[in-house]
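Quick review question:
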């Protein structure tokens, strides 16, 4: 058995809520050294339709911050592209977390970032089931 202890804790969880302000959103995205965000969204992976919100996410992704979309609902899964706002997230480069829990999503993101992978490699691996953390 080999235990891998390389994790990168330069990550955050950002829960989307009605009325979230641009100031709050930007304060999280501008944390020095931030490499990844688990975005807890509504229902099947949706966010408010505010243009500023999508633009903030696009800027973060351009800075190689990996953004992983999971649902904040107790059951269900992210189905990006099903509704208008999740289409915008998909176009921006946000990764679908499918049916991962918050705990699995943050742990998986920390693990992958700790392996020294590029942002694109991390995104690719996030979409794969590695240890039973998501349904395929």
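Suggested answer, residue by residue:
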């Amino acid at each position: 058995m080999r235990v891998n202890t390389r994790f990168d804790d330069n990550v955050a969880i950002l829960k989307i809520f009605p009325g979230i302000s641009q100031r709050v959103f930007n304060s999280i995205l501008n944390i020095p050294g931030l490499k990844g965000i688990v975005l807890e969204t509504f229902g099947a992976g949706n966010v408010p339709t505010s243009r500023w919100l999508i633009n903030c996410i696009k800027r973060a992704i351009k800075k190689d911050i990996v953004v992983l979309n999971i649902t904040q609902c107790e059951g269900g899964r992210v189905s990006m592209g099903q509704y208008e706002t999740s289409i915008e997230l998909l176009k921006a480069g946000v990764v679908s977390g499918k049916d991962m829990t918050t705990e699995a999503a943050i742990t998986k993101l920390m693990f992958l970032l700790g392996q020294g992978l590029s942002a694109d490699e991390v995104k690719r691996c996030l979409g794969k089931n590695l240890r039973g953390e998501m349904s395929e």
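Why it works: The CA atoms of residues 129 and 136 lie 7 Å apart. The mean pLDDT is 93.
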